[in-house]
Here is the input.
Amino acid sequence: MKNRSTLILGLTASLLASTALADVKVGFIGSLSSDTGLSTLRGAEIAIEELNAAGGMNGEKIVLVSADTGEDVTEGVKAYEYLAETEEVDFIISGSIDDVSLGWLPRMQEFQIPTLDTWTSYIGIIDMVVEDPETMAPYFMNIASDEALATLYINFGADVLKKEMGWDSVVILAEDTAFGEAITGLVTEALGPVAGIETKEVITYDVGTVDFAPLFSKAQASGADFIYQVSSVNSQVISSQYVKLQVPMAMTGVNVSALGLEYWEDTGGAGGGISTLSPVPSVGFELDPESQKFVDTYQAKYTSRPVMPHFNGFNAYWGLKQAMAAAEAAGGFSDAAKWAKEMEKQDITLEKDGKLWLRYAFWGNDEVEEVTGRTYPHNARFDLTAPYEDAQPSMVVIQWKEDGQVGVVYPPEYATTTFEVPSWVKK
Here is the structure.
């Protein structure tokens, strides 16, 4: 009897172990203390809950494990190694900032784990996919790359800053990061020849900067008409100081802190006048019914910040569903190349009032984007020419008003308000 009980217990344990091993394991990599990281994590959590409620992936339960990067490159590498070696995940979804993704990319190439980046937009990574399609096959980026972001921003420069405001020159105030360098290069090379706006000077600052007064003085001394800022780390500091110092120049560009609804509180109400490009959906962006449904679920589930997911939360929600659909078609994640082929086919279109509003799809390996004349394999599909019939624009420009309201100011097809110069700036 004892032997029979032992045998039964052994079989039970074996079956439980088999069941555990059958789970599809998703690894989240990103900062667990930032709005950016939490947006991706929560978008993934909601998608997994919905997928499991519908039967999981091919009947297998999907589980989520996390690895914190602390927005640090070294910790990011350790986090990826932990997910790959200790947790042995099947798929990784990233809410990492650009520099951190660049740090762990060699590990992705080594482990060949299907990986989706929902925040990083560095064009250099897409260049790696072009140059080394074999080892980069498992990598996808479902945010438009920074070249696409900057390209449409050049149109904003030509249509609004140059044509409407009459500004002819700019001083760039950019953080010393891979993201800052990439955007600065793209803007410098294109703003002049395309938009007719001269770059007077490029001022680079350390991400730990707490006193921007000397930098603003230097920007004024350049004689430029406006400031183009590039800030993805601690960007609420430069925003609030710009307002409190009443810097007599308009400031636009890229300000990541302004992408969240907490921006007004974070700046102590000193964030008015700031405009920034943002991938979609953004704050102040009208939502289609499906996106609104996701936000409703999100806000019912989470009460802590961010109270509304950043764009990468939407990317994580839809992207994880696409990754699982691709795995079902590929027979799992074990064959990364086979999974990648199926992931390339994923295409979700969302409509608003009978028109295409958002699209979650990827550029093919040989497709040439007509405006830039280049390929963007495994990058989110975007449209740089209005009317936006093939996909949504790569980004929109939003502006925070002095009364704390926020809205989209460009492109016109998605605008909910108009671009304004802060009240203290002479027009």
